[in-house]
Amino acid sequence: MNAAVALRARMATSAVARRGFSTTRAQLGSPYHYPEGPRSNIPFNPLTRFFFLRYWAFMTVGFGTPFAIAVWQTYKSG
Hints:
Elements: H1 2-13, H2 51-75
Main location: mitochondrion
Membrane topology: Single-pass membrane protein
Keywords: Membrane, Mitochondrion, Mitochondrion inner membrane, Transit peptide, Transmembrane, Transmembrane helix
């Protein structure tokens, strides 16, 4: 077990085991840079009027559809 610890310590100091984490400043003129901040990474705007009604309608239809289909298939004659 001591040999494994010594090997791990020796590998940690080698140049292969070290990684340089560096970043560059985001270039605003780049076509691949998108705006950052709250609500900028979602495909809808939650600040619009009646958003909560559209949200809950979407969630109700999405969650209820499989159950409605199951009930329809259960009571379907045939």
